[in-house]
Amino acid sequence: MKANENNIPARTPLIETRDLKKYFKVNGGRMLHAVDSINLKLYSGETLGVVGESGCGKSTLGRTLLKLIEPTGGQILYDGQDITKLNTRKMRPLRKEMQIIFQDPYSCIDPRKSVVDTISEYMQIHKVFPNHQQTMNRAIELMDLVGLARRYANSYPHELDGGRRQRIGIARALSLNPRFIVCDEPVSALDVSIQAQILNLLMDLQDELDLAYMFVTHDLSVVKHISNHIMVMYLGTCVELAESEELFRNPLHPYTKALLAAIPEPNLDSRDKEFQIIRGEVSSPIDPKPGCRFAARCEHCMPQCTQENPKFTETSPGHYTACFLVNGNNPGGQTSDTGGETGGR
Amino acid sequence: MFKKNKVNAETLDGYVSQGKWKEIWRRYKKSKGAMIGLIMMAAMAAVLILAPLFVSYESATTQDFSLMLATPSAEHIFGNDGYGRDIFARIIYGGRTSVAIALIATVTSCIVGSMLGAVAGYFGGRTDSLIMRSLDIFMSVPDILFTMAVVYALGANFVNLIVALTLAYFTNYVRLVRSEVLTLSEQDYVEASRAGGANGLRIILSHIIPNAVGVIIVNTTLNIAKIILYEATLSFLGLGMPAPQPEWGQMLSEAREYMRNTPHLMFFPAAAIIITACSVNLVGDGLRDALDPHLKS
Amino acid sequence: MGEKDEKLILDIQDLKVIYKTDIETVEAVNGISLKIEKGKTLGLVGETGAGKTTTALSILRLLPQATGRILSGKICFDGEDLLTKTEDEMRAVRGNLISMVFQDPMSSLNPVYTVGQQIGEAIKLHNHDLSHEEVEGRIDEMLQLVGIMPSRKAEYPHQFSGGMKQRVVIAMALCCEPELLIADEPTTALDVTIQAQVLAMIRELRERLGTSMLMITHDLGIVAQICDEVCVMYAGKIVESGTVEDLFRGEKHHPYTVGLFDSIPNISSRATRLKPIPGLMPDPTNLPVGCEFAPRCEHCMEICKKEKPQVYSEGTHKFYCHLFDSENLKTGGSENESK
Lengths: 345, 297, 339
Hints:
The structure holds three protein chains of three kinds. Chain A contains eleven helices and twelve strands. Chain A has helices at 2-6, 58-65, 88-95, 115-125, 132-145, 162-174, 192-209, 220-226, 244-249, 254-262, 324-329; strands spanning 15-26, 30-42, 47-51, 73-78, 81-82, 98-101, 180-184, 212-217, 229-234, 237-243, 313-316, 319-321. Chain A has a domain at 2-97 and 178-251 and 262-276: Rossmann fold (3-Layer(aba) Sandwich). In chain A, the strands form two sheets. Chain A has an eight-stranded mixed beta sheet with strand order 6-7-8-3-9-10-12-11, with helices on both faces. A four-stranded antiparallel beta sheet of chain A has the order 2-1-4-5. Residues 1-5 and 329-345 of chain A have low confidence and may be disordered. The longest helix of chain B is centred in the middle third of the chain and has 37 residues, at 87-123. Chain B is mainly α. Chain B has helices spanning 12-16, 20-29, 32-49, 51-54, 57-61, 87-123, 125-140, 143-154, 158-184, 188-195, 200-236, 248-255, 264-291. Chain B has a single domain (19-295), classed as MetI-like (MetI-like fold, Orthogonal Bundle), CATH 1.10.3720.10. Chain C is an alpha/beta fold. Chain C has a single domain, classed as P-loop containing nucleotide triphosphate hydrolases (Rossmann fold). Chain C is built from 13 helices and twelve strands. Chain C has helices spanning 52-59, 87-93, 105-108, 115-126, 132-145, 162-174, 192-209, 220-226, 244-249, 255-263, 302-306, 326-330, 333-338, and strands at 8-20, 25-37, 41-45, 68-77, 80-81, 98-101, 180-184, 212-217, 229-234, 237-243, 311-314, 317-320. In chain C, helix 4 (115-126) packs across helix 5 (132-145) and helix 4 packs parallel to helix 6. The longest helix of chain C has 18 residues, at 192-209. In chain C, 44% of the residues are buried. The model of chain C is unreliable at 330-339 (pLDDT under 50).
């Protein structure tokens, strides 16, 4: 893994984006910058965690990668192939390889379909098996794989709890043997004990099937647990990207630091410490002003920060930050425009 | 919580073999009202379909002035109307046209309206605007005027009546289904289906319509009764089926003249309409519940 | 800590609550007892369906009228049993002496009134004789207290962000200076950085006003940072209680608490696999005969399936688990059982 980060990667990333943008039109002809200039690479068998607060564009990013939402600009490469311009029909074969797991275990499955029907839906769309019996057998196999007792095959979603519903969603996502799965907050609606069961399941499946996950969440402890790399997003932009351990050990961007400090830790050591609070609230992503998006809440804000966009630079091998503070400390820091995890365009 | 009787064997087939329709029928059977409605409907259908076996069409149109306004008797169990025609025969043959027109018009308006509504709601944007604005034009003309125009232009016969009634009623469904679809397409399972490579038509047919079906069915069952009455209005205005052919609405409007002295002229066609509407509503309610797995237990 | 009655703001004894419908009876709270000392914060921890919110609603007697029923128990507030009060008397308690902050700030505020009007309404409800100016002054004071510019009081809820709305809700809850504040997952709907702001504010206000608090949460992190004492609930029962020290530093724990801690991905140390509690919460319409946790417990013994455990205590730390029975302790203690 290390070798891939420093030099030109030995293998093609499964998913790569180049300057990916998604803007939504809002009233009055203004533009909501949901995803702005995102560059990322994700290799088979690895997990990229995407963290950020609500409205930072993390879910939009996931859906744009799968082309469930058409990107406004930039490129998406799947296994080296540019899929940005593919139309719905040409995307269809690729749909088998890229899947999504949703946040809400209640709305992600059709209440009118039984468990096997839901799991076998994709197989029926792609006519994977010539007959019904084989499809059903595969559906049952998938139920075994995700740890759903076979007796639930004919049950309807309302008879099952959130954890089991989430397993149905996972089984459905796995039914076409995908290589890449976007996990959009798959555990945030679940209770802690169930959350742990699902996280373990996702990790086991990854080992077994060599899946690549993009794990979107707001929960830092979950993302640390499951990810190889973590990308921190703020208002549509990526502010920091690093290997999981590195990011937690050595956060560079003030926003990342604030996020880490804001988690109430379940031990008493930090109890009497003051909460490290960042002031204010997330500002609007509609027609953002130039400059660092975090500037308004940043305690280190400099004049420069409100005037130009900070460049996304590699501050140490594999660790990228978009902040003038960090760049200032490293004058002429290696602005990687080529290669690397997430170079510029 | 799950049904124990379904976990029968350790074989794979044991878990998945039960057919969908069998399951729906099992749930349908549980409701007494629905079964009564179904039996009423079946009985009525049998009578209407097998009518030629026990009553001839002639007796519905033969005028016998000696029997004018006769009260029910052994020979003419429902009595005779103002022209001395046998009311029983007229109810049965009238039912064949009335019920057939109402059913077909309801089904066609439901299908046309639901599909348009689903398409408008699901695709949104320009498609939506186009459909909804055309609909506004339709709806700006009063129903009755519109139907009259169609029947005048095309002439009053079986097919044209259906066309006219369909055009008058499908607008309801478009609005209803569109708003349902707008809510439903927000659901993650619709997105999941797209992520699995399903196209718009498949999503509408396999996720959206089944979930909107409850609302559609309720509306449909209410409409059948309304359409029968609407036909009556048309007959009253002289736009129903051509003259000698019996029809419930027409019979009602003819009976109006004699309402005070011989109420049975009005009673029988009215009862026929009520029974039909009732059974359809009962079946509709039962069907809505049977199609909804939530009420399974 | 001398436990004299005057020191207690809230004393719940053996509370049992059910939800009864035509079809089934949900046993939501099954005989819990808890105490809150004046000025202290008690954390009530548990997963969905553990009966935390039901407990809170019972204190205010706000259970859904059609289904909710308090079967037995006592809820003593400042020495008076709330369950024997009339509805009119209760109305004087709600908002005035005890107030509650709900999880979802969006649904706690009425969208058609300005924020100022809504706080004013809450003030006037219990202080009829205040003049208009006094009320306005109090509104400004309350907004300042929760860190909102008083100039924003003429704005409507939709103009506020989620965190700001929750602050307004807290301002409303505190405007009559209640003696007890019940906070039901007050930060669950908020983002982490906003959550930190609200938690810091709650901590500061509590110190300044000396309000006692019942903090309902599923997040052990919040408990560690905010609470003085903790009760862990499972299936309508308290399974472990004690001070935060007992819970986070204590040696012995109820197996469910252990399971809860093992389920949280730890931010400071990385384990490759989590150790979740197997299985699911029991069906509240059909609870096990013995210990509620027995079906999921790795230390389950024969007695656990048959009898409900008694309370075993070590100082302030209490457990409801057969593992702590003196006989089981004698034969090598819980450590042995767990192997």
